[in-house]
Amino acid sequence: MSQVRMEQKQMVNGLDVGRLQNLVQMLKKQRQAGQMTLIAQTQWKEGGASTTLFDGYEIDGAMQHTVARDLRIEADEPIELGGTDRAPSPHETLLHALGSCVAATINSYAAMLGVRLTHLNIALEGDLDLHGKFALGKNVRPGFNRIYMRISIDGDADEKTLRDVAAAGFKYSIVQDTLAGGVEIVPQVEMFG
């Protein structure tokens, strides 16, 4: 990624469009480039509370942050699930990740098309059955059964363009694709001490 050239900054919706365009051109030319590994560490505190720290990320095998990042997300469980409700639950944080990723992807597509957004809101609702969390049903999964998303958008483009931008943002969102397409999670349990 260090090969991405910086051209004159053209900011649209708070994004450096030249940087995005250079990245896209580099990825088109170098199909093996663009491999990213995100790194996080969740530390349990007590009860349902935990803190996730984000140590950084690698792009094409090179660590991008050698200095500690002070990025963290707090989590807790609702009172009904034994927690203290002092922070969003991990399930709510998943909705946050989905909505934030779709919004960021929509904005990227809009910016690259030169569409200035004046409004973008992602409303989410997730349905789940708590029987699954406590293994109280054979065919009840512990995760969300359905997530509803309503995208509200406006900007300086016609309705068709705005709908196309919203659709592309949804389709190419990393989190949306991960949830819809599934991902292999490889657990490894280590004994501490």
Quick overview of this protein structure:
This protein is α+β, with helices and mostly antiparallel strands.
Largest sheet: 4 strands, antiparallel
At the first level of CATH, the class of the largest domain is Alpha Beta
Based on CA inertia axes, which overall geometry fits?
A: globular
Question: Could you state the CATH homologous superfamily of the largest domain?
Answer: K homology (KH) domain
Q: What structural class do you assign from the helix and strand content?
A: alpha+beta
- How much is the radius of gyration in Å? 20 Å
Supply the number of helical segments: 5
- The percent of residues in helical segments reads 25-40%
CATH fold-level assignment of the largest domain: GMP Synthetase, Chain A, domain 3
Rounded mean pLDDT is 90
> How many domains comprise the coordinates?
2
Task: Estimate the strand proportion.
Answer: 25-35%
Q: Would you count the extended β strands for me?
A: 8
The termini sit apart by 39 Å
Low-confidence residue ranges: 1-7
The helix/strand series, from N terminus to C terminus, equals EEHEEEEHEHEHH
CATH architectural arrangement of the largest domain? 2-Layer Sandwich
Question: What order do the helices and strands come in, and which of them pair?
Answer:
Elements: E1 11-12, E2 15-16, H1 17-29, E3 36-46, E4 49-59, E5 62-63, E6 72-75, H2 90-112, E7 117-127, H3 130-133, E8 146-155, H4 159-171, H5 174-181
Antiparallel strand pairs: 1-2, 3-4, 4-5, 4-6, 7-8
